[in-house]
Amino acid sequence: MSCGQGRMCGGVSNVPTEADEKIQTICDGVKAAAEEKAGKKYEIFKAKSYTSQVVAGTNYFIKVHVGEEDHVHLRVWAKLPHQGSGTELSAIQQGKSHCDPIEHF
After folding, report:
1. What does the pLDDT read at residue 2?
2. What are the residues whose beta carbons fall under 8 Å from the beta carbon of 93, sequence distance 6 or more?
3. Which DSSP category does 15 fall into?
4. Whole-Å CA distances, 93 to 12, 16, 35
5. What is the 8-class DSSP label of residue 43?
6. What is the per-residue pLDDT across 56-75, written as a single tens digit (0 to 9) for each?
7. pLDDT at residue 50 is higher than 50
8. Cα distance between residue 6 and residue 21, in whole Å
Protein backbone atom coordinates (compact mmCIF):
# COMPACT_ATOMS: atom_id res chain seq x y z
CA MET A 1 0.00 0.00 0.00
CA SER A 2 1.53 3.28 -1.08
CA CYS A 3 1.31 6.34 1.17
CA GLY A 4 2.58 8.79 -1.40
CA GLN A 5 4.65 9.07 -4.51
CA GLY A 6 7.89 7.12 -4.10
CA ARG A 7 7.30 6.25 -0.42
CA MET A 8 5.72 3.22 1.15
CA CYS A 9 4.01 3.25 4.54
CA GLY A 10 6.64 3.20 7.26
CA GLY A 11 8.95 5.62 5.47
CA VAL A 12 10.46 3.18 2.93
CA SER A 13 11.25 4.61 -0.49
CA ASN A 14 10.18 2.15 -3.18
CA VAL A 15 11.63 3.97 -6.20
CA PRO A 16 15.41 3.73 -6.66
CA THR A 17 17.23 7.03 -7.03
CA GLU A 18 20.48 7.47 -8.93
CA ALA A 19 23.37 7.65 -6.47
CA ASP A 20 24.95 11.06 -6.00
CA GLU A 21 28.10 12.34 -4.29
CA LYS A 22 26.51 12.06 -0.82
CA ILE A 23 25.70 8.35 -1.37
CA GLN A 24 29.18 7.67 -2.78
CA THR A 25 30.69 9.31 0.32
CA ILE A 26 28.58 7.03 2.53
CA CYS A 27 29.81 4.01 0.53
CA ASP A 28 33.42 5.14 0.77
CA GLY A 29 33.00 5.37 4.54
CA VAL A 30 31.78 1.77 4.90
CA LYS A 31 33.95 0.15 2.20
CA ALA A 32 36.40 -1.43 4.67
CA ALA A 33 33.53 -2.89 6.72
CA ALA A 34 31.91 -4.24 3.52
CA GLU A 35 35.18 -5.86 2.46
CA GLU A 36 35.55 -7.43 5.90
CA LYS A 37 32.00 -8.83 5.87
CA ALA A 38 32.41 -10.08 2.28
CA GLY A 39 35.88 -11.51 2.88
CA LYS A 40 37.33 -9.82 -0.21
CA LYS A 41 38.83 -6.55 -1.42
CA TYR A 42 37.05 -4.39 -3.98
CA GLU A 43 39.12 -2.34 -6.44
CA ILE A 44 35.91 -0.80 -7.79
CA PHE A 45 33.26 0.38 -5.30
CA LYS A 46 30.90 2.70 -7.20
CA ALA A 47 27.45 3.56 -5.84
CA LYS A 48 24.85 3.23 -8.61
CA SER A 49 21.40 3.70 -7.03
CA TYR A 50 19.66 3.59 -3.68
CA THR A 51 16.44 3.62 -1.72
CA SER A 52 15.99 4.78 1.84
CA GLN A 53 13.93 4.18 4.96
CA VAL A 54 13.39 6.76 7.67
CA VAL A 55 13.89 5.17 11.10
CA ALA A 56 15.74 6.59 14.11
CA GLY A 57 18.06 8.02 11.49
CA THR A 58 18.00 6.71 7.91
CA ASN A 59 18.62 3.26 6.46
CA TYR A 60 20.12 3.47 2.98
CA PHE A 61 19.82 0.44 0.69
CA ILE A 62 22.55 1.00 -1.88
CA LYS A 63 23.43 -0.89 -5.08
CA VAL A 64 27.23 -0.79 -5.54
CA HIS A 65 29.17 -1.85 -8.64
CA VAL A 66 32.22 -3.87 -7.53
CA GLY A 67 33.74 -4.88 -10.87
CA GLU A 68 32.83 -6.55 -14.16
CA GLU A 69 29.12 -7.46 -13.91
CA ASP A 70 29.20 -7.84 -10.11
CA HIS A 71 27.24 -5.74 -7.66
CA VAL A 72 26.54 -5.83 -3.94
CA HIS A 73 23.66 -4.32 -2.00
CA LEU A 74 24.48 -2.51 1.23
CA ARG A 75 22.23 -1.53 4.12
CA VAL A 76 23.83 1.46 5.82
CA TRP A 77 22.41 3.20 8.87
CA ALA A 78 22.99 6.96 9.09
CA LYS A 79 22.64 7.91 12.75
CA LEU A 80 20.94 11.02 14.06
CA PRO A 81 23.13 13.71 15.68
CA HIS A 82 22.05 12.80 19.22
CA GLN A 83 23.14 9.19 18.46
CA GLY A 84 26.65 10.32 17.60
CA SER A 85 26.08 10.91 13.86
CA GLY A 86 28.13 8.87 11.39
CA THR A 87 27.23 5.78 9.40
CA GLU A 88 27.34 2.07 10.10
CA LEU A 89 27.20 -0.88 7.71
CA SER A 90 24.30 -3.04 8.89
CA ALA A 91 24.34 -5.74 6.19
CA ILE A 92 25.66 -6.70 2.76
CA GLN A 93 24.16 -8.89 0.04
CA GLN A 94 26.64 -10.34 -2.47
CA GLY A 95 26.12 -11.90 -5.89
CA LYS A 96 23.85 -9.17 -7.19
CA SER A 97 23.63 -7.91 -10.76
CA HIS A 98 22.84 -4.54 -12.28
CA CYS A 99 19.27 -5.75 -12.92
CA ASP A 100 18.51 -6.97 -9.38
CA PRO A 101 16.04 -4.68 -7.63
CA ILE A 102 17.08 -3.05 -4.37
CA GLU A 103 14.90 -4.54 -1.65
CA HIS A 104 14.61 -4.05 2.08
CA PHE A 105 16.83 -6.56 3.92
Report:
1. 35
2. 72, 73, 74, 105
3. S
4. 18, 17, 12
5. S
6. 899 999 999 999 999 999 99
7. yes
8. 21
Q: How many residues does the chain have?
A: 105
Q: Which is nearest to 40 in space by CA: 102, 95, 105, 101?
A: 95
Percent of residues in the chain assigned helix, strand, coil, to nearest 5:
20, 45, 35
Contact 13, 30 (CB under 8 A): no
Largest Cα–Cα separation, the chain:
40
Q: Per-residue DSSP letters for 18-37? A: E--HHHHHHHHHHHHHHHHH
Nearest by Cα to 67 from 49, 45, 50, 48: 45
Pairing of strands 57-67, 70-78: antiparallel
N-to-C CA span, the chain: 18
